[in-house]
Amino acid sequence: MTDDTYFPDPEREADAFAALQARLPEMFERIFPDRMHPRTILVIPSMTLDPDVLSKVSGVHHYEERMLCMLLLLRMPRTRIVYVTSQPIADCIVDYYLHLLPGIPHQHARDRLTLLSCHDGSDEALTGKIIDRPRLLERIDAALGDRTFAHMMCFNVTELERRLAVRLSVPIYGCDPALLPLGSKSGSRKLFRETGLLVADGFEDLADENELAEALADLKNRNPRLERAMVKLNEGFSGEGNAVFRFAGAPDGPVTKGWIGNHLAGMDFATEDMGWDLFRAKIAEMGGIVEAFIEGDDKRSPSVQYRIDPSGHLKPVSTHDQVLGGIGNQVFQGCRFPAEGDYRLEIQADGMKAGRRLQQQGVLGRFGIDFISVPHEGGWHHYATEVNLRKGGTTHPFIMLQFLTDGSYDAESGLFMTPDGQARYYHATDNLEAPRYRGVTPDDLIDIAVRHDIHFHGAAQRGVVFHLIGALSEFGKLGTVCVGASPEEAEHLYRETVAILDRECEGRGSSIDPA
C-alpha cells in the first residue's frame, strides 16, 4: 500500500495521531468507569523491538500470547475485543482464558471476541505485517465498528503502531513514540540525574566502540578500585542487550583507551550468542551506555510500575522483585509480587520523582522503573537503572491477578487486596523451560493442571494461571503466575508446579528453573 492517505509524511502522521489521542480523556472519563458501556478494544501484541536482540529469546513469536490476559476484559458484558497475531492461536488456548472469566458464560464472551491472524511466522514485527496486508486491515476495520468507543492496546508503541492507529483511525492507550528517547538507557540515566535519584557512575549517548572504550577508561581512572562495568545497548530488551566488562589484568596507573579496546571482544554478554561483532554493530546503530557495576553480597533487583491515565493522573500500580538469570544475572526471568517489605515503599516513592517528570513530558499509559538495591548500615541504597516506557514482564501477571480477583493495589501498604480484604501474592515467570517439556501440548498441560489440582480456583482466589502456552510443545517453554495468600504459598505453588511438570515429563531431560 502506497496511498498517501495511509502513509502520510511524518509531520502529517504525527498531527493525525495527536488528534486521535485527544479523544482519549473524554473516553476515559465517560466510558472506562462504566462496565456496561459498549466499547471495542483492539489488541496489537507486537513486540516492535530490535529484531536481532529479540532473536535471542527462545520462542519469541509466542510472546504475542502474553497479552491474552486482556481477554479477561470480556467480563464486562458489552465489551468487544479484536485480537490480532502473527500466527493463529489454538482454540484450546483461547478457551483456557475464556473459562477463567468470572460470572460470564463462555459462549457469551466468545461471541464478543474477534481473532485475526497474519498467518506469517517471520521475524518481522507483527504491526509491520498487519500494515502490509490491506485485506487484513479491511477485516480489522470492519470488526472495530464505531470508533467513538474504540481504542488500541499495544505491548509498546513505535512509529509502526502510530501509523497503524492513523490508518485505522483509533487512538492508542500508550505513549507517543516521539517520547521514546526518554525510556532509552541513555535517556533513563539523564532523567534519574535530573530528578535526584541515585544512579551508578557512568556515561551515556555513546555512539561507537571508540567512545565506548574511552568511557570505560575514564570510568576506571575515576575509580581505580572498580573491577567491573556494565555496557548496555540503548534499546536492549529484558537484559538481552547487556554485557559486563572486567578490568582484570589492567595495567597499574591510568588505563588507556587502547587497552580497553583490545579487551572489548572478551566481555561477558548476557546471551551466549550475542558476540562482540553483533554488539559492536548495535552500538553503532542505536548507541549505548557504560556504568559502574554495582557490587553487593545481598543485591536485589526490584522494580516499580506506574500508570499515567488519559486524564493525566499518575499513580503506582505495583512493585516486584525481579528474578534474573543468564550470564552475569542480567536477563529477566520472572518476578515476585510484591517487592520485599523492607524497601517496596521506598522504591515506590523514589520512582514517583521520575514519574512526575515523565507526566510533565506527556507520557501516557503503563511504564516501569528498575532499580538495583544493596543493603547498607540502617537501610538500603536504591540505584535507578532504567525506565521502560512500555508493558513488560511484570505487566501481564499483575493484570491477570487484578482481573481474576476484582481486587486492587493499595499504594499505602504496597499490597494487593481482594474485595473482601485478603492480601494476595504471586510468583511469576516467562521462562519455565526444559527440553523434557517439548511435545507437551496445550491440552496435555491443562489436563496435568486439573489432575493435580493446581489450576486457578476463582472461589479460593489461589492457584496457577499459565501463559505462553503455545510455546510449550515446540520450545519446551511456558509461563506461570502462581497466586497465593502469602509469599510462602505463592513460592510453594511455583515449586510444586515445576515438580509436577518434571514428574509428568520424567526421562526427557532436566528442567531449567529460572528462580
Short characterization:
The chain has 515 residues and is of the alpha+beta class. It has 3 domains: 10-173, Rossmann fold (3-Layer(aba) Sandwich), CATH 3.40.50; 201-292, no CATH class; 302-504, 2-Layer Sandwich (D-amino Acid Aminotransferase, Chain A, domain 1), CATH 3.30.470.20.
Provide an overview of this structure.
There is one protein chain. With 515 residues, the chain is α+β, with helices and mostly antiparallel strands. Helices cover 33% and strands 24% of the residues. It has three domains: 10-173, Rossmann fold (3-Layer(aba) Sandwich), CATH 3.40.50; 201-292, no CATH class; 302-504, D-amino Acid Aminotransferase, Chain A, domain 1, CATH 3.30.470.20. The chain has helices spanning 10-21, 24-30, 51-54, 91-98, 106-111, 126-131, 134-144, 159-168, 185-194, 209-222, 257-263, 275-286, 344-361, 395-405, 442-451, 472-475, 487-504, and strands at residues 39-44, 79-85, 113-117, 150-154, 202-206, 228-233, 242-246, 268-269, 288-292, 302-308, 314-325, 331-337, 365-376, 379-388, 408-410, 415-417, 423-433, 463-467, 477-484. A hairpin with a 5-residue loop joins strand 11 and strand 12. The longest helix has 18 residues, at 344-361. The radius of gyration is 23 Å and the shape is globular.
